[in-house]
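Reader question, answered in our methods column.
A reader sent in the components of a multi-part assembly and asked whether the whole thing could be modeled at once rather than chain by chain. We filled in our standard form and ran it. Here is what they sent:
COMPLEX SIZE: two components
ENTRIES:
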Amino acid sequence: MAKDKLKVRRPRAETPRGFRDYFGTEVTERNRMLATITEVYHRYGFDPLESSAVETVEALGKFLPDVDRPNEGVFAWLDEDAWVALRYDLTAPLARVFAQHRNDLPSPYRRYAVGPVWRNEKPGPGRFRQFYQCDADTVGTPTVAADAEICAMLSDALEATGIPRGDYQVKLNNRKVLNGIMEVIGVLDPADPDAHAARRGIVLRAIDKLDRLGDAGVRALLGEGRKDESGDFTQGAQLSAEQAEIVMGFMAAKRDTGAATAARLRELVTGSDTGAEGVNELETMAELLDASGYGPDRILIDPAVVRGLGYYTGPVYEAELTFEIRDEKGRPRQFGSVAGGGRYDDLVKRFTGQSVPATGVSIGVDRLLAALTAKGRAGMVAEGPVVVTAMDRARMADYQRMVAELRNAGIRAEVFLGGGNMGKQLKYADARNSPVAVIEGEDEQARGVVQLKDLALGARLAAAIETNEEWKAQPAQMEVPRAELVAEVRRMMARREADS
Amino acid sequence: MAKDKLKVRRPRAETPRGFRDYFGTEVTERNRMLATITEVYHRYGFDPLESSAVETVEALGKFLPDVDRPNEGVFAWLDEDAWVALRYDLTAPLARVFAQHRNDLPSPYRRYAVGPVWRNEKPGPGRFRQFYQCDADTVGTPTVAADAEICAMLSDALEATGIPRGDYQVKLNNRKVLNGIMEVIGVLDPADPDAHAARRGIVLRAIDKLDRLGDAGVRALLGEGRKDESGDFTQGAQLSAEQAEIVMGFMAAKRDTGAATAARLRELVTGSDTGAEGVNELETMAELLDASGYGPDRILIDPAVVRGLGYYTGPVYEAELTFEIRDEKGRPRQFGSVAGGGRYDDLVKRFTGQSVPATGVSIGVDRLLAALTAKGRAGMVAEGPVVVTAMDRARMADYQRMVAELRNAGIRAEVFLGGGNMGKQLKYADARNSPVAVIEGEDEQARGVVQLKDLALGARLAAAIETNEEWKAQPAQMEVPRAELVAEVRRMMARREADS
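And here is the structure of the entire assembly that came back:
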């Protein structure tokens, strides 16, 4: 007996920890949003690329195995004698693809990519180990015109998905300006770039904490250090008050116009060639964008954008949604960032030894879809199919003929194929969010008619109508000649659309 | 020095063995084909499902680990204490999803799924370890009306992608008829289904080899056995000549009409209840399909369809393309199968203990795309963007303004962002398959005009035009006022479309 029991132990029907499935409109609405975005990318001359989901660990780079099993952050396994892994983003594969196929690709190479990526991280609420990314990058040109183009494209893409102008801002910053600041405060020496790395790290991390710690906390971290509430002490960057002032000034440099902001930044980086170059780049981008109609109402210089400043090498950009939503406790809060990117000039060099300039943006697919849902632009319940009920199993051929007629007229339709009486069939139709149920029993067949049940109207009537007269005036069920099935269903669905 | 050399060893820019990347139209044409197919599925009431790419090895089932590392056929790795793997098809995940979410899903549950699957198999020419599948299944109903519906849907989907009626056939068979044959020849005992398993296996394998071995070879395998050219002997099923005749008769049972084929099958399975049930199912399906307009010109009973008979439990169906293509040596050959499916009633039972009837089809995405390319319905070169050349770097803002105008008019356009003279820029435009190049140098700017170069026409003219008069009559380059840029480009592209 024990052995028999062991034999019938059943597998658990569960996704692995941190993975999930997507159903119905979750799939179609994401696909529709991505199709809208990639149509904009296509209009900008970007070509699609779908790279392999599996890469050699060697090509992914960041995660080279220094232990037997390189599982830091990625899902990796040994394929015969080589470690391979699922891609963790779409940028590392782009660098590999460009290095591998550079002789066959146009230069500059504008490409977009959409697809799942995988992260071997601790899952949490709303935090999954497989999710979509949607990237666009231009590889092979150093001109910031490429960065400006991507900012304009991002702006167009957001508006195309249904985020109105005024409800988002694309914010621009530049790593070189920050480097200029670092030079001015003496923690970056152009002649010896590796010196002061630890103090630069402290400055970068302090800047990144402005939101959380406020002015005083950041000033403490820029100076001697900071003791937090628990009493733990974080070592500071040991800047003088004057030096710290320059860093604080950088983050607060935003003025009413791009020109004024640039002028303020130019003051702050006085004496640094790199800093001046960064300000020039910001000015050039603003000029190019203004010329093509992407003014500060859409894209503006904002030195408070620091996300990614540690990673990128030149322009950095981020799209923020500026409208308020309610959080789970009903409190208003800003939606925040839905896309970010910038210039990274050394990714391809790993493979070829040659520096290949590149710039690109990644849209947070799940976040943008959540934003569209919050704006009522997505998250709608899908219209279900017209359901032809099956009163009499033996007459399935008649019911199939009906759905074939409806489908040939472009109407989504299905026959009920399960078991059960009329009540169960109508319940199924309701659960499917079906607009219309079709009923043809023995009596109807004999008289050459069908009953059409307007399920949505029926639900509304049941909730709202008070008198019998009203019910009769707007019947939720009607009898029509069999020959007029398609025309009548179409009419009911059109009325429903007009009502909603 | 040796140490320094080691340090700069560069990673190889290569996909792992058996994986590949897809570029440009390879991506868009597959997506377009899949969008067409899923639109048909949607019209039939099927809902999309996108399940996790990673499953527990336990849920995938077939590959339960009986060794430390379960790598037979799948890519698997240890995730903390559980083995997980990339899905190898879309059916095993459906069974897991249905078992996991059955209380929230409609019943019957019609779903379609599109996405990559992964196989840990030896790669070969044209045989990759990641490829797309496109499936549609109905879970939760035993009626063969569901099987018929899927056959009709498959037929509609093929026609929607561009395979004309007459160029394909959906062929129907039924596992129960084969089981009836097995009963009649004495290798299947309904009272003891496990008996004779070995001989049934030999019969199944023999049937499957009809194409390759011909009548005589199959007869040998059904009887004593067969010695192949190398002298190796394959044990036969030990059927008598009369018994073998019944098997051969089964495979050759196709007649001019479905009714005649069914009648012939009914003769062959005389005495077997299962066989009679299978014939009834085939008849019912043919009846339902005829009633909704899917006659034998699209869907027909063909007992020679044996693919999958070992796996499925009831109806089996397969879509074959019947037109000829040329193989790599220029010889005509039939295109063959592009989709297959059938009824499998026990996949969900593994999880829940309850038998859940299901039926479904899988389209071979790469094969169908190859077929459409062979028919000239896919494989076209994508139209590249209008390229605005950048004669003068300092005037990038003007060029950006031009592409913004073109894009706002819905025209795909880009500025040349690379380095190089006009010759290099026009070469780039050609490589991009650009329809029109826009040129505005100092002189043009001063006169308020732009040059438009019709690149496609230019190529044709260079090849075909013989006299100077003709050249002038249809110039490949024209000067137009700057203000008429968009209108003129649109006119040139419309003319191009009309010409092609």
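What stands out: The radius of gyration of chain B is 30 Å. The domain at 386-499 of chain B is CATH 3.40.50.800 (Rossmann fold).
Send us your own complexes using the same form.
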